[in-house]
# Entry
Amino acid sequence: MNYDHIFDQAIERLHSEGRYRVFIDILRNKGAYPNARCFAGHNGPKDITVWCSNDYLAMGQHPKVIEAMEMALHDVGAGSGGTRNIGGNTHYHVDLEAELADLHGKDGALLFTSGYVSNDATLSTLAKILPGCVIFSDELNHASMIAGIRNSGAEKRVFRHNDLEHLEELLATEAPEVPKLIAFESVYSMEGDVAPIHAICDLAEKYNALTYIDEVHAVGMYGPRGGGITDRDEAAHRIDIIEGTLGKAFGVMGGYIAADSRIIDVIRSYAPGFIFTTSLSPVLVAGVLAAVRHLKNSSIEREAQQANAAMLKAKFREAGLPVMLSTTHIVPLMVGDPVKAKKIADVLLAEYGVYVQPINYPTVPRGTERLRFTPGPAHTEPMMVELTKALVEIWERMDLALAA
# Structure
């Protein structure tokens, strides 16, 4: 058995399909986001502008967050010391879970090391606890949700994206006594669209199903206190489990769920992904705590980000660029070919100092490859004008179609 040959073939398949992923080598400039320094392929660092960060509100650069992390570092040191059960539980963790529970109007919350882990651990554990549970999953759910459902061993029914009629058809086929869980997202980050939350909750109530919503691309971003789309649409009380991340709009790292204290206790007590994992460093937790508290009381960042997203969409449309329909802060630009998407991203970085990652399969279906822009509060109109001009020039250079 030639193991090296098998591994080489696996990587070569990715290259031949144009979807081999290259990780950019950069350092962000503290206090100057979206400016950064790129080290790849240059004689020394090159100044670039970041257009694809999930630190949507630049909270990872916020003075309050940095100060809180520095204070925690000098107060308690760097690491957590272990799992939550063995040495890794600190007052920072307790305080943050209380803040997150309050943010979503729930009895409790539970921290995880990432949003991926929170989805995987919670969904896999919940379905195992509920005998014979059937999970109803939106077809565009994140890979972490799919992994959690698969790891649960539960039966799965996939409904067409945001298709309420199809969801109800599937729900109606199950016996009333069968435990049911509807798993979906609020903001779908590759399309930029939003789930019909109240309508899904109506179906959940009609068919006696639990609801699980992934709000990772919405927490911090929407609602009067940053509780997400469920906060904005006054739907949080209708959702059984709200899952979120601490690494996007809150700017640091980690994931969590917020729910009834009984559900929290079950996941805390049974989920291997929680029990056997070293807890988040208290330094990170302190930073998130500062970010959550700030965004509960400040809408300045959210409003600036939404205004900039709308401005960039408008400039792309006016230039004839194929910007996809999006009702959120996500600005996706359709390319439809993995090789061309990577080429555009490469030219933007090398010639224009613009960093945006191509998004390809399996993150999106084949044939729908795209560039995904996430303008933040600090992106300026001149930056958007220059970006649009660069994209138009590249589109014409590569003989790609522009709208008339």
